[in-house]
Prior knowledge:
The chain has 208 residues and is α+β, with helices and mostly antiparallel strands. The protein contains 4 helices and 12 strands.
Amino acid sequence: xxxxxxxxxxxxxxxxxxxxxxxxxxxxxxxxxxxxxxxxxxxxxxxxxxxxxxxxxxxxxxxxxxxxxxxxxxxxxxxxxxxxxxxxxxxxxxxxxxxxxxxxxxxxxxxxxxxxxxxxxxxxxxxxxxxxxxxxxxxxxxxxxxxxxxxxxxxxxxxxxxxxxxxxxxxxxxxxxxxxxxxxxxxxxxxxxxxxxxxxxxxxxxxx
Length: 208
């Protein structure tokens, strides 16, 4: 009987170990994704973890939760899977009604936002820039790639999309581990799922 108990315990531990091994080695693209909505109900997007409003977000530095780092000209969101230092997905909603924003020509504004929020201010020109039409939204897509060569401060592999909707400019960014990661299943799924939501209108009261 003692021998059988030991065997059952050994089998139980082996099964637990196998489950942990399979869980740790499951590709992140196979984790459960859900559709999340922004706090102002203006857009929805699919992600492997909840969408959270943060103080600031950009492709070079990721998410920042410190209140004193909050952007005054944009509302920022990030998908925090483990910790803020390892964020892969982020969205900035820029206030397009600000005078400083609209005083620039659109082409220059988009180039600037691409450098500041998606890529690298020190090397502002994207590796790839192209026009896109996704889910009925016309915009521009940018790939910023900075390899860790001599004299560089670090690697940057980011891919982002900008949709200028007048009053709001949406900047959706994916941060990759390398250049190949920028076209991964996770990158495509996140970027292609972005949708604007129609504002709810209050029904008119009927006259008696």
